[in-house]
Amino acid sequence: MAMDDTLSVAEVATLLNVTRKHVLRLITDGKLPAITGTDGTRAVDRADAEAYGLQARKRARKALEELARVSQEAGLYKPRTADDFERSARRWRRRKVQRGEFLSAQAFCRQRGVSPAELRRLGRRGDVFGVEIAHRRYYPAVLASVSGVQLSRLDRLCRRLRPLPAWLRWDTLTAPRGSLGDRSVMQSLSRGARYRRARWFVGVTVADHKGN
């Protein structure tokens, strides 16, 4: 790796329009290859950073399109243009944080009773997932709202939902469904018959997504 082709953490943050902390998390999670110098500083190949940025933009666009579809199906919003929708979506996401429906990593760890290291492990397994809001990662509060058997069931469903974009996973878990008796998946964790129906619904949702 030629030094002229490498970027510092700060330069990568500027390139990706994120915080330095976010870049370091990407490196720690293995999502962005990096080398560590003798002085402990991190460097990232420019091509790797640009490739990650391109894929991140594609994922963001896909997530916005999915969120638009879900919102329109629910009758929540009918955007006039893509830019119009993006502005509305940003405001909508910020309101979700303000209302406590999405938590910072620190708040989520406190509510679920796990350490930051355990949160990363749960994320790698697929038991929890986060979303990007205003260049920061937040976690759905519902993933820290149950315990015991319900939590074990929720973890299994979250792992099955891994192929879906994060926002669609959240919608799958929280939106009431006619096929679930006008309950959400989250409201179907306590009773065996309802949980089996919720598990079926999750499987169908994932299969439909893969087929599109």
Automatic annotation (TrEMBL):
Database matches in InterPro entries: HTH_17, SinI_DNA-bd
Lineage: Bacteria, Pseudomonadati, Pseudomonadota, Betaproteobacteria, Burkholderiales
GO molecular-function terms, A-Z: DNA binding
Keyword field: DNA-binding
Record bears the keyword DNA-binding: yes
Protein name: Excisionase family DNA-binding protein
Signal peptide per UniProt: none
Organism per entry: Paraburkholderia elongata
NCBIfam families on file: excise
Domain Helix-turn-helix span(s) in chain numbering: 7-48
